[in-house]
Amino acid sequence: MRPSLKIEIWNLLSELGRTKSLAQAAERLDMDLPAASRLVSSLEKELGVEILDRKRKPAQIVTKSLELFSEADRIARQYQRLLKTAESIKHQDTIKPKRILKVSLPANIDRSAYLNAFSNFERKHSGLRVEVLIDAGEDGLLNGAADVAYFGYRPTKEGIAWIPAGHNVTFLMASRSYLRRNGTPQSVQELRNHTLLLRNSSNRSFSRRLENRDAVFEIESDEKVHFEDAYSCRTHLIAGEGISVDLVPSFVADELMRGDIVPVLPGWHRRPWEICVCRRDSDHSPLVSEMADLIVENFKKHTVDSWMFWYRYFSIPLESVVLPAVD
């Protein structure tokens, strides 16, 4: 047996002992749920002890593993004391940042994985502070409000260099309370009889197109469609007021794990949309390029893994998603 040397595993186990919920523990640590699940699995293999009973939905703590949590908490607290001591030594004199790097992220994503990566980036580059903005847009990038921007679309304005990161994928979701009151649609055509929750049409990645392998369905009428920002969509989804079309599952990870929210018409999903990480074409700073590469790396590691995790979790065929070719 080789005990894990990764402190994040012990932090996660400590929070899991407090919350008794993997989703809540991951949220408290700003960690995406699939990554947290993989960490616990790796620790189970290393220790040879089952920590979570994954046969139950959501996964439950195995009773005989409870004594592990107090030891994990002791390790986590000791590490935090070590960090505070180190910070005290490091910052005996107030040091102003030598440079501020401004990064724009969209509102409709789980930002936890990126914020952790940005903290590590700051530690790697002494005197650097990373500031996060929300949806600065192409104009914000060009006028210097942001140095690096994550867009859910391909930029069109001149003066912007971009890196294709991949595609975002969602699935239709509704609360059990909504389905009890309104019935569960059995075909995509029956969506015409249901209230649909969509991101605002002003969003550059907006689409009315639903896909399932080669099959296509267009949401034509606005009569029963509510166009809202991501957080309003989430609120109304949880309240049982409609079927979400393009909300990323990480926004309601806890509700999905509990079974309060479930997939609707598995296999049907909003058309995947392209993700691009951008900078000004005239900005050749190595820091900016490194940050752009970091965001691309985190998107591929966390976002792609996240939607695939949920598809596998609910046994939705991955083959139902056909990603557009990147030219």
Automatic annotation (TrEMBL):
InterPro entries: LysR-type_TF_proteobact-type, LysR_HTH_N, LysR_subst-bd, WH-like_DNA-bd_sf, WH_DNA-bd_sf. GO terms for biological process: DNA-templated transcription. This is LysR family transcriptional regulator. SUPFAM superfamilies: Periplasmic binding protein-like II, Winged helix' DNA-binding domain. Pfam families: HTH_1, LysR_substrate. The keyword Transferase does not apply. Keywords: DNA-binding, Transcription, Transcription regulation. GO terms for molecular function: DNA-binding transcription factor activity; sequence-specific DNA binding. Belongs to the LysR transcriptional regulatory family.
